[in-house]
Amino acid sequence: MRRSPKLSQSANTLSELQTIFWLNLLVLDSSGLVYLLFGSAEVQPWNYPDPQHSTKATNEERRHSDRSLKPQIEMREKLAGNS
Fold first, then answer.
1. Are residues 7 and 16 in contact, defined by beta-carbon separation less than 8 angstroms?
2. Where is the composition biased (Basic and acidic residues) (predicted)?
3. Measured between alpha carbons, how far is 61 from 50 in angstroms, rounded to an integer?
4. How far, in Å, CA of 55 to CA of 49, rounded?
5. In the chain, what are the domain boundaries?
6. Dihedrals φ, ψ of 65, to 5°?
7. Would you call 18 helix, strand, or coil by DSSP?
8. pLDDT by residue (tens digit) across 43-82?
9. 74/13 Cα distance (integer angstroms)
10. Average pLDDT, the chain
């Protein structure tokens, strides 16, 4: 793979940093322009999950995390009691 000698030199001169700055500005501005032309800020329907389904999943996750954390908490309490 061939590297650009202008961007791969070890000395960081002001002109090299300026080149990087302008390249970065070009990339950011072009991505912003693409969003302005083709993007949308409309809220998508998948943004609103089914409340009953999400509550059930959340409760199951809590029960699972509580069971998996209990041995760790007990071990920490035992270690703290020995100190």
1. yes
2. 58-83
3. 17
4. 10
5. 10-39+57-81
6. -70, -35
7. helix
8. 988 888 777 666 665 666 766 666 666 777 777 788 887 6
9. 58
10. 78
Identify the H or E element spanning 67: helix 51-82
Residue in this structure with the two tokens 């032309």, named with its chain if needed: 37
Side-chain half-sphere CA neighbours of 65 within 13 A:
6
Place of tokens 């760790």: 72
DSSP single-letter state for residue 7: T
SS3 65: helix
Structure token digits, residue 60: 């199951």
Alpha carbon 76 to its chain centroid, in Å, reads 31
